[in-house]
Amino acid sequence: MIACVSGAPDALQAGRTPPSPCSAPRFGTEDALAALRRCADFGQLRQAHARIIRSGLSSDQLLARKMIQVCSSRGQMDYAALVFRQIERPQTFTWNVMIREYTMNGGSRRAILLYNLMICKGYAPDKFTFPFVVKACIDSLVIEKGREVHGMAIKAGFSRDVFLQNTLMDLYFKCGDGECGRSVFENMPVRSVVSWTTMISGLIACGDLDGARRTFEQMPDKNVVSWTAMINGYVKNGQPQEAFDLFRRMQIDKVEPNEFTLVNLLKACTELGSLKLGRWIHDYALKNGFNLGVFLGTALIDMYSKCDSLEDARWVFDEMQIKSLVTWNAMITSLGVHGCGEEALALFGQMEKANVVPDAITFVGALCACVHMNDLEKAYELFVNMRELYDITPLPEHYACLLELYNHASVQDEDFDFLSNTEMEQNNDILAAFLEADIAQDVSSADRIFPSSFEETTKMDSIYRGQLPRFKWDVG
């Protein structure tokens, strides 16, 4: 009886086969791809990668490329490089992905070095390799390497590829070699809309606005990008009326503008100083379903501010769902220059609470607000925070605000103890910047703030020699 009871658990399992690793569902390539697509953060990506390795899929280059792309999207290029190095013999497509992702993540020089390694190891580039490497050359502004890649593409038989030729044009124009850019365009057997638009933008960048317009008129087919490129050219060259004339033609040709078309037209309104025209563009955007995105919204704020309609600028700012640093800067600066110092500083506080990290331009706007409020103490507090909390190197504009406030203060020396107590290095930077900005006109006032002993002056003089090499100092 005891034996029967003791054997009962086994009897309960009598009709079942115990599970084994062999009968578990296999984790294949499709499962791995699905797991990578579901990764919400870097930790989950590493877990998915570990499972891929345990399942013997680490040599699957399709999965490797997907992992590299996911790493890139999260800014984890060092981990992407680790994944790449684990591949025994990467296919050309895999090399291409790694080169492209480096370039997209600001690692253009690493992309070029990886291309060099690819060639040294004897891997043959394809027609996609060269445009990716040329793009890296553009970002690094290394035209000589771009010429070398161009030569390699010719030898490999890919020089007539339209995508490559468009990228080469972009390289030569952006690196200042307009002649080579034109040569590539003129020798193209087939030109896409992108080819024509790249040529137009390149000519504009070289200052040949008339040549750009002639090229624009020769285009067999124009899209919104080519129209916008030409409108942008007129705006950049201070011809806002011509920009609007071209926009009217664009409407006649029934080409719908995009957000960047309207942004350029708002800049033209600012150039013309026409609030009426700017409001018309705003109404046009609303009636045609444009959202107040970062670019359009910021351009509207800038236009309204410069056309003296601060109320409209603030309305746009408040309506924007997503704001970039440039958006915050535009609104803070607008409030500051219009004399609304308290509002500008309050908005600066909101920006910090929203965890938006300010930059040097933000502090120019905030310090300008202090100038309008005649609040030297607050300005100095902001100046110190800029350096100590945000590690921002002060610009001459920052120092100019401090000096203007000091010159307006008309108070006793002891009220400026907080300035005289500044570290020597800061004093050096301040006076050097004043000299750089040509604003140190009141020597007696400067002497009241900055050290004047012989030893300190000698020390400062040696520092200025390093900071401002273009100045000629009399030391004899």
Automatic annotation (TrEMBL):
A Pfam family assignment: PPR
PPR repeat positions: 91-125, 192-222, 223-257, 324-358
InterPro entries: PPR_At4g14850-like_plant, PPR_rpt, TPR-like_helical_dom_sf
Record PROSITE patterns: PPR
UniProt region (Disordered), positions on chain: 5-24
Keywords: Repeat
GO biological process per UniProt: RNA metabolic process
Keyword DNA repair appears in the UniProt entry: no
Protein name listed in UniProt: Pentatricopeptide repeat-containing protein
Organism encoding this protein: Eucalyptus globulus
Upper classification of the organism: Eukaryota, Viridiplantae, Streptophyta, Embryophyta, Tracheophyta
